[in-house]
Design a protein that fits this description.
The complex is a heterodimer of chains A (267) and B (683).
Chain A lengths: L10 E6 L2 E3 L6 E3 L1 H11 L4 E9 L3 H11 L5 E6 L7 H11 L3 E5 L11 H9 L3 E2 L2 E8 L2 E7 L5 E7 L2 E5 L11 H6 L1 E6 L6 H5 L20 H9 L15 H14 L5
Parallel strand pairs in A: 1-4, 1-6, 4-5, 5-12, 6-11, 7-11
Antiparallel strand pairs in A: 2-3, 8-9, 9-10
Helix pairs in contact in A: 3-4
Chain B lengths: L1 H27 L9 H20 L3 H26 L6 H29 L13 H16 L12 H21 L8 H11 L42 H8 L6 H5 L1 H4 L6 H13 L1 E2 L9 E2 L3 E2 L6 E2 L20 H5 L6 H5 L6 H15 L7 H11 L22 H4 L1 E7 L7 H16 L4 E3 L9 H5 L3 H15 L3 E7 L2 H10 L14 E3 H10 L12 E4 L13 H10 L2 E2 L18 H4 L7 H11 L4 E4 L2 H8 L11 E4 H7 L17 H8 L1
Parallel strand pairs in B: 5-6, 5-7, 7-8, 9-10, 9-11, 11-12
Antiparallel strand pairs in B: 1-4, 2-3
The chains are: A alpha/beta (267), B alpha/beta (683).
Bound molecules: iron/sulfur cluster (2 copies).
Chain lengths: 267, 683
């Protein structure tokens, strides 16, 4: 961010960080999107950044969380939760208590449910606005943040949001800095027991490794290099979609349901 | 009158030298502790000087003789002058003999100083100027002055010849010589190298690098392990005082001869590194101050041609590299300087003062990577890949043998014991290197070698992580590889990657669990193939008519002293070998070591292009290499329009193409009960 951008002194930022999982080897690590969130927070001038994690605690999760400490933090607040607990109430309570101006988190977790719903549920519960796919925080003035949201194909949308707010980052956010080994192992994990609420839904679920599904091939009939490039660079938007405007929530939900049935996601 | 003046001059020079020595020693004492055997080191010093140091100096005959005459003459003349003029000892014929000896010593020294003066007339760019330009005059002043004042002592001149005016002039000349040569030695003049150098030889951090009386080769090239036990200790070298005291002492020994600068590939490529300047910067840092008085070639700068001196300064406890937060601020050295090094060791090989540049550079990189998280370029990504997938490219570690699906390589996990453990290296993920590996396997099978591979159990050796300063990831990889290796039985490890070779051979030893040790030899494939040829297990059909040249990989040659085997194999192939001007221990790096392609610091030209230029000079059709990294770097060179393509071939590919596939006329004597076996593998 431009250093000259005016920031209200002492912007309180909390980054929600999770334990990640490497896509190829399954080894724990700092989650990529959460790390991008930390990077974004670090680049804010004049911000007081806290790291917060809620989840199960063991040796391997500690190692992964230390990855965030290595980005230049001396401590990370850790709300210990039993396996399979719903971390939402614990996080909501902690955020309520510390009342930061801005909460940054990755779009979705790399392990567990990974539904990407947590930020939305949190926003709903706290009654804060949520902005997804954040690319940059341009300025914060008088409790209003000017944000840059990333849209497909490199487009950006400027938004003004009243704080406190929750923002999520995905791969459009700047890449995280390297995690340094020395600070990572010297930093402390400040553990406390958060309120525990068991996730009954989750308990009923059956989890099994995903089978790789054949990829849908995109057949490009391009005659020139320019067309091939355009086809390769285009974000596939499925072609056959439809845009519904001015419909009631029920109509919208109906349309989504129909699509899911067509695609055999729901039977 | 001289009889009174001379003792005063000599003893005040000695006293001032002693004061200077204490001050200098305190500068070194700022460094971290490093235990040394004091008496044994001092006792070994003369041999280290006369044998090991001279071995390096003698590569330039004229300079070697100049130095012997000047330094030998000075030491003798000074000792005798203390006796004759300082103490006035000896009477009668004794004083006469001592006097004549002193005359001879100072005359020798004078002769030497004439050669020093000659070299200073048109000094090559690598030599420092500044105070060094007055050194020949000071040497002459001392030797001439002492010579003349000694003449009366042997009765050639009367004691009061010339009167008091001449005596005063003589005394002044002698005083000048004493100032430069005696107390200048400890007060930071050019002669400092003699004082610091002698002690550096005695207390060197790698005593094992010196030869011993049994003629041991004395090679010590593995990096020293960083202690990661104490989790509060800062890691690596942040400030000059974070070096060990004997490293600081070593920096102080530099004579600014610039031999390191002349061979440094990064300097030649115009990257911002000059090993001589780097060592001088450390000297500046340990005393505190700016580099404005440095009088040699500065660091090149791709934008400005060269970095002007005077912009950088440091202090013993100040940072060497300005921390990221003060990005445009400068400290002692810019980070790019440290990341330009390919760790080729050419500088260490050439340094007559036995200074360890690579150790120092890696020590400083360790701080940047482990404490600052500031590995540049693709460094952070490579390290993350190594942590998550055990290979630098981030490939699926379960796919290490995909390239060999048709080769049915025996796995250690199945056979558990084999004659040879074939270490494949990360080249398994690289299509070019897979060709080399196939060739090597064909050769091994032709020779009937019983080998097995680790397959997916193999991990990156840790070489690149270590050179990038990530000692933690290196040690983790090393420990896990060691655990895998110790599950199997084999007689030796063979690898076609000199980097894995070096790490397995020289650097893993420190990480074996207590009570265990690496009890197997490690061979580079060129050495192993040579053994196979020598023992008659491998039959070649010579008759290749190519004109080839051979590029010595740094990690095989300078790191491990293997220059002969690859050449012997080429000879057995019958090809015509033409040497490049820079070959053997003077081989020029391909630019691929030390993570340099990953950090990718810009320069004026690329190192592999320069090396390919060396190759073209020989007019060879092929350049033979023995390293996946060299293959990649040299093959990446695009020939300019009017240049011929030069093929880059691994030595294993050369051998595989020359296998004698006709049935053996006199079968190699092997187990007589299975005569079929030999036939089968040969066909
Ligand atoms: S470091 Fe060694 S080779 Fe380089 S200038 Fe100094 S003494 Fe010479
Ligand atoms: S190791 Fe090689 S690249 Fe590094 S400073 Fe020495 S000569 Fe230069």
């Amino acid at each position: 961010m431009q250093p000259e951008s005016a920031m209200t002194p002492g912007l309180d930022v909390t980054v929600l960080v999770s334990v990640g999982r490497h896509p190829l080897t399954g080894r724990v690590r700092r989650a990529d999107q959460d790390a991008r969130g930390v990077e974004l927070a670090r680049s804010l001038a004049n911000a007081e950044v806290r790291l917060l994690h809620a989840g199960e605690r063991n040796e391997s999760s500690d190692a992964a969380l230390r990855g965030y400490l290595g980005m230049g933090f001396s401590e990370l607040a850790l709300l210990e939760q039993p396996e399979g607990a719903d971390v939402l109430p614990a996080l909501a309570e902690a955020l309520d208590a510390t009342s930061p101006h801005l909460v940054i988190t990755g779009e979705r977790a790399e392990r567990g449910e990974g539904s990407g719903l947590l930020p939305y549920l949190l926003a709903e519960r706290l009654g804060w606005p949520l902005v997804s796919s954040l690319a940059a925080v341009e300025s914060v003035e008088n409790g209003v943040a000017t944000l840059l949201q990333a849209l497909p194909r490199g487009q950006r949308r400027r938004l003004s949001v009243r704080l406190p707010a929750i923002v999520t980052v995905d791969d459009a956010a700047p890449a995280p800095r390297q995690s340094a080994y020395g600070p990572a192992r010297r930093g402390t994990l400040e553990a406390s027991m958060g309120p525990v609420s068991n996730d009954e839904e989750w308990a009923k679920w059956q989890v099994q490794p995903a089978r790789p599904r054949p990829k849908r091939l995109k057949i490009v009939k391009a005659t020139s290099a320019r067309d091939r490039f355009k086809a390769a660079a285009a974000k596939s938007d499925g072609g056959g979609g439809q845009v519904l405007t001015d419909v009631t929530p029920t109509q919208g939900a109906e349309a989504i349901l129909t699509l899911l049935r067509e695609e055999n996601v729901l039977q | 009158m001289l009889d009174t003046l001379l003792p005063i001059l000599i003893f005040s020079a000695l006293a001032l030298a002693a004061v200077g020595a204490v001050r200098r020693i305190r500068l070194w004492g700022q460094g971290r502790p490093s235990p040394v055997p004091v008496l044994r080191g001092l006792a070994a010093m003369p041999r280290r000087y006369l044998v090991d140091l001279h071995h390096v100096v003698a590569r330039d005959k004229v300079i070697a003789n100049t130095h012997v005459a000047t330094a030998g003459g000075f030491v003798a003349a000074m000792a005798l002058a203390i006796v004759v003029h300082g103490l006035g000892l000896g009477s009668g014929w004794v004083s006469g003999v001592l006097g004549w000896l002193l005359l001879a010593a100072s005359a020798t020294m004078f002769a030497g100083s004439l050669f020093v003066a000659r070299r200073r007339r048109n000094p090559p760019a690598r030599l420092s100027k500044g105070p060094w330009m007055r050194l020949p005059k000071s040497l002459m002043a001392f030797s001439l002055g002492i010579f003349v004042v000694t003449l009366p002592a042997v009765g050639v001149l009367p004691a009061d010849a010339g009167g008091w005016l001449v005596a005063l002039v003589l005394a002044a000349v002698v005083a000048w010589g004493l100032a430069e040569l005696v107390f200048g030695m400890t007060w930071g003049g050019p002669m400092k190298h003699a004082f610091a150098g002698a002690l550096h030889l005695a207390f060197h951090r790698r005593p094992e690098r010196f030869s011993d009386k049994r003629g041991g080769e004395g090679r010590s090239t593995g990096l020293k392990a960083l202690d990661l036990e104490d989790d509060q200790a800062p890691l690596g070298v942040e400030t000059p005082a974070d070096f060990t005291w004997n490293q600081l002492l070593g920096f102080d020994a530099c004579v600014q001869c610039g031999r390191c600068e002349a061979v440094c590939p990064a300097f030649a490529a115009g990257q911002p590194l000059n090993p001589k300047k780097l060592i001088q910067d450390m000297v500046v840092g340990m005393a505190g101050g700016s580099d404005a008085h440095y009088a040699g070639s500065p660091y090149p700068s791709p934008e400005r041609g060269e970095q002007p001196v005077g912009e950088h300064q440091g202090s013993p406890h100040g940072p060497i590299v300005a921390p990221a937060a003060t990005k445009d601020g400068k400290a002692l050295v810019d980070a790019e300087t440290l990341w330009s090094c390919t760790t080729c060791r050419a500088c260490v090989e050439e340094c007559p003062m036995m200074i360890e540049h690579v150790d120092a550079i890696v020590d400083m990189r360790r701080h940047l990577t482990l404490e600052e998280g500031a590995t540049p370029g693709k460094g952070a990504e490579v390290i993350d890949n190594l942590i998550a997938t055990d290979n630098p490219g981030g490939f699926d570690p379960g796919g290490r043998l995909n390239w060999a699906a048709d080769l049915e390589l025996p796995l250690m996990a199945d056979v558990e014991r084999a004659e040879v453990l074939l270490w494949l290296g990360d080249g398994v993920f690289d299509m070019r290197n897979q060709r080399t590996l196939r060739a090597l396997i064909k050769v091994l099978r032709a020779a009937g070698v019983d080998f097995a591979v680790l397959g997916n159990e193999e991990r990156d050796s840790g070489d690149v992580a270590r050179r990038l300063g990530d000692e933690a990831t290196f040690q983790s990889l090393a420990r896990r590889n060691i655990a895998t290796l110790s599950r199997y039985r084999f007689e030796c490890i063979v690898t076609c990657d000199p980097h894995s070779f070096h790490v397995l051979k020289n650097e893993y030893g420190a990480f074996y669990p207590p009570g265990q040790e690496a009890d197997y030899p490690v061979w580079h494939h060129s050495t192993f193939i040579h053994q196979l040829i020598e023992s008659g297990r491998l039959r070649l059909a010579p008759g290749q008519r190519a004109r080839v040249t051979y590029h010595d990989p740094c990690y095989l040659g300078r790191y491990n002293g293997e220059y002969e085997a690859p050449r012997a194999v080429l000879q057995a192939l019958g090809v015509e070998l033409v040497e490049m001007q820079r070959s053997g221990y003077r081989s020029r790096c391909c630019g691929g070591g030390g993570g340099a392609p990953i950090t990718d610091v810009p320069g004026k030209q690329r190192i592999p292009d320069m090396r390919m230029g060396d190759v073209r000079e020989t007019q060879a059709e092929q350049v033979v290499v023995g390293c996946p990294q060299c293959t990649a770097m040299l093959e990446g060179v695009v020939p300019s329009a009017n240049d011929e393509e030069v093929a880059v071939k691994d030595i294993a590919e050369m051998v595989a193409a020359a296998l004698d596939t006709t049935p053996a006329a006199t079968p190699v004597p092997r187990d007589a009960s299975t005569p079929q076996a030999a036939e089968e593998v040969l066909s």
